[in-house]
Amino acid sequence: MTTYIIAALLLAFLQTWLLPASFNMKNFPWLGSNRDEPMPHELTVMAGRAMRANTNLQETLPIFLALALLSMQLDIDVTGPAFWWLILRVGHVVTYIAGFARIRTAVWLGSVVCLVMMALALI
């Protein structure tokens, strides 16, 4: 389970900093500045999607981490749903950035089902 927790935190790192910055290279000088001035340009479409995908991850990551840590404390194996949650979350950011709205929604729903399965296993 520790591996999945670390992988989820790595995903959060990628989604929080690297993806939005990489899709917003036109504002790179501002990103490397003290940011005393407002950002000079609006975000690119893909940078905006990356940031919204990150916001969505931040809404479910605490739930995942709490369930994962509880499973370790209670010695209950939830590695199956934890693995699929992580895979689906990677799929979510990819489909979000690519603009596949219906697939993204289905993938998101699958990740929520994985959280429910983790929670039910702990009851």
UniProtKB/TrEMBL annotation:
The chain crosses the membrane at residues 82-99, 106-122. GO terms for cellular component: membrane. It is found in: Membrane. The keyword Transmembrane helix applies. Its main location: membrane. Keywords: Membrane, Transmembrane, Transmembrane helix. It comes from the Bacteria. It holds the Pfam family MAPEG. This is MAPEG family protein. It comes from SAR86 cluster bacterium SAR86E. The lineage of its organism: Bacteria, Pseudomonadati, Pseudomonadota, Gammaproteobacteria, SAR86 cluster.
